Structures are given as C-alpha cells and as structure tokens.
Amino acid sequence: MKKIALLSSLCTFSLWADVYATFESQAYREASLGMNASGIVKNVSVQNGDHVKKGSLLLQLDSTEEQLSLQMAKADLEAISKEAAFLSDQYARYEKSAQVFDKNTLGKLKAELDAKRAQLERTRLSVAYSEQKLSKMRLSAPFAGSISEKNIEMGDMVSSMGGTPLFKLISDQTKLLIQYDSKFASQVKVGDRFCTSIDGKSTGKCTKIIKIYPTINTKNRQMTAEADGSGLRPGTFGDGMIMAK
C-alpha cells in the first residue's frame, strides 16, 4: 500500500511539474521590400537600424519623366474638359430650338459630343495611370518597425525584375517561439505562464502562452508554442520554465 501511495504521489507531482523549454524571439512581421518600377535611385531616406512609421518614405527613384507625363496628361484633361463642356452647352441650346435645326445637324452635334465625352474619359484614365506610375517611383514602409537590412545606395540602378531585397523591415512587436519536449504535449496549455532566462540568469519576466502549434518536429520531437515577446529584441535566444497549471 505504501508503494502504491508513493507511486501515486510521484505521478501527481509529475503531472503538475514545470516544463523546461528553450525560446527564440522573432518579429511578428518581417518584409523583404523591393520596387515595382525601374530607375536610378535619387534619394535614400533611411539607414540600417532606423525606426520608421507606417507610410514613411524609404527610397525614391528619379521621376522626372513620370512627372512630365502626369503634367501633360493633366493639361490634356483640362483642355478636353473645356471642349466637352462647350459642346454640351451648345447641344443643350440646339436641342431647345430643335424646330429650327434639322435632325441631321442635331445628330452630328450629338455624335461629336459623345466622342468628346469618350475622349474625356480616356484622358481621365491617362491621368490616373500617370499618377499610379509616379507613385511606384517611391517606396514606403508597409508597417511600423525597424530597418534590419539595407542593400541600396543613392545612384544605384533598381530593376522591377526583383533580385536582392532593397530593405528588410521587421515589426516593433516580437513573439517568443517556445520549444519543449513533446512528451509534455498534454500538460502544456494555452494560458500557461512561461518565465524566461538568458545566459542562465532569470530575466524576472513571465509571459502567457497564446498559441500551441499542432504538429511535432519529427527531427527533435519538440513541440512549439508562441507567447508575447515584448521587450526582447528579435533573434534573442534563451530558455525558461513553463508553469503548467
């Protein structure tokens, strides 16, 4: 009976023991950034390690040609808008005096007005296209974060065909990827606390597990969980204990 009681006590302790785990901190979001246009770099606004806000300008290509194309398209739009307005007023006046003009004259005027309106719409599309083309000459940050890699300098030639990313951007928020032995799969739960250590020294900080990945790594039989990594730089390694409930 004593042996059974002792064995039961050990099993209970084992079920509720803390679980050793290792961790690596990663950015929640990472992006390799390039251009959708080709050209010569006119300006680079950031350096490696700089923090940027969402929408911050990172790089600008020489856009002299694109700006001229947009100005010409806008000038055409203004001129054609005036011509269309004139024809529209003229047709409205003739239509009110339809009994004075034969149907052929009104028909020709209506056809001319329709053609001018179609030309006006094409010109509007041309302006929109020129604006879009000009916008592609600028590269902006898709989210707030830090520049972790920079591979471009002023005067360099950029191709829209891809290749080496111009910048790598990592988000401000970090996550911990926690690995532990799969034999504790049924013990570790979402909501359990994970207390971290770095270089064998406790950080004095604990965080809650927010996600447990469903698969087991077949190479090392490890499970992976995820927790918030606020305060730790991406790439930080360490270990710690999962306080299983």
Task: Tell me what you see in this structure.
This protein has 245 residues and is of the alpha+beta class. It contains 3 helices and 14 strands. It has helices at residues 2-16, 64-96, 103-135; strands at residues 19-27, 30-33, 39-44, 51-52, 57-61, 138-140, 145-150, 157-158, 167-171, 174-181, 193-198, 201-212, 222-228, 237-243. A 6-stranded antiparallel barrel has the order 1-10-13-12-11-14. It has a 4-stranded antiparallel β-sheet with strand order 2-9-7-4, with no helix packed on it. Strands 6-5-3-8 form a 4-stranded antiparallel β-sheet, with no helix packed on it. Strand 11 and strand 12 form a beta hairpin. The chain starts with a helix and ends with a strand.
* Strands ordered across the widest β-sheet: 1-10-13-12-11-14
Oligomer: single chain
What is the helical fraction, as a range of percent? 25-40%
Label the structural class. Answer: alpha+beta
Count of DSSP strands: 14
Mean pLDDT: 90
Main sheet makeup? 6 strands, antiparallel, barrel
Q: In sequence order, what are the helices and strands, one letter per element?
A: HEEEEEHHEEEEEEEEE
Q: What is the tally of helical segments?
A: 3
Low-confidence stretches: 1-15
Structural Rg: 33 Å
List keywords for this structure.
single chain, 245 residues, alpha+beta, six-stranded antiparallel β-barrel, four-stranded antiparallel sheet, 3 helices, 14 strands
